[in-house]
Structure formats: C-alpha cells, structure tokens
Amino acid sequence: MKKILILNGPNLNLLGVREKGIYGDQSFDTYYESLQSDFPEVELHYFQSNSEGALIDKLHEVGFSYYGVVMNAGAYTHTSVAIGDAIAGIQTPVVEVHISNVHQREEFRHHSFLSKNCKGVILGFGLDSYRLGILSLIK
Predict the structure, then answer these.
(1) Active centre residues (catalytic)
(2) Strand pairing of 94-98 and 120-123?
(3) DSSP-assigned beta bridge partners for residue 96
(4) Quick check: pTM over 0.90?
(5) Residues 14-68: pLDDT tens digits?
(6) Among 14, 34, 65, 98, which one is least packed by beta carbons within 10 Å?
(7) What's phi and psi for 127, nearest 5 deg?
(8) Who contacts 21 (Cβ-Cβ below 8 Å, separation ≥6)?
(9) CA-CA distances (angstroms) from residue 67 to 13, 34, 61, 78, 135?
C-alpha cells in the first residue's frame, strides 16, 4: 500500500476557527477523515507542527520511504530556505498545496521557497487542494 504523508505547518491546527473567510469553517481533523474514506487504497499519515525544525525532521524521516508528501507549509512557504532545502534533499516527491490562492493575497505570499523543489503546486481550491495533491501523486 502506498504511504502518503500530509504535512501541515504553522497555524493550520487552527483550521475551522481562524480566518474562516480565507480558510473555511471545517477542522482539518474532520477533513482528514473524509480523505481516509476517499482513498482507501492509500495509507495516509498526518503530521502538523508550528515548528520549522519539526517539519524538516518529518521530511527527513519519510523522505526515502514514503510514496509522496502533500505539504502545506503555511507561512514557512514564503520564508524558509531550510524547508526548501529539505525537500531538495529527499527522494520522496512533495506536492506543495495551499488552501487559498496565495497570488490573490499579500505580495509577500507570492513567492515560495519550496515550489522549485516540488513535483507541483496546487492552490486556491480550499481544503480540496489536499485531495488534488493526493490525486496528483497516485495517478
């Protein structure tokens, strides 16, 4: 069975309660349950951290054995050379996802330090960006 990690960065533990106009009103835990139901052929794993180092450690941990990673690095997308380097250093393909269309938001969100090292980028489809990320890995 293919193992795919969903890796969420800072403040994504607050989905469903923070900035509902941007991120919606559903918690990620509830959404994750629906993903598990929708992809029974995939062994999904989930990890969230507000710490840059913990995200890098998790990429190193799964980066040579998992089938893929769907990653929303949150604000670290726009600030972390280190996470970009971690993605470049592993063999497992990473799909960068974002709930909102970051290009419709503040200027600083228009640049990603991750994208050039990722298999692809999916953004602006709400929580379904994760579903599309998984599909891109298994199709």
Answers:
(1) 23, 98
(2) parallel
(3) 71, 121
(4) yes
(5) 877 766 666 667 788 999 999 999 999 999 999 999 999 999 999 999 999 999 9
(6) 65
(7) -65, -25
(8) none
(9) 24, 20, 13, 25, 12
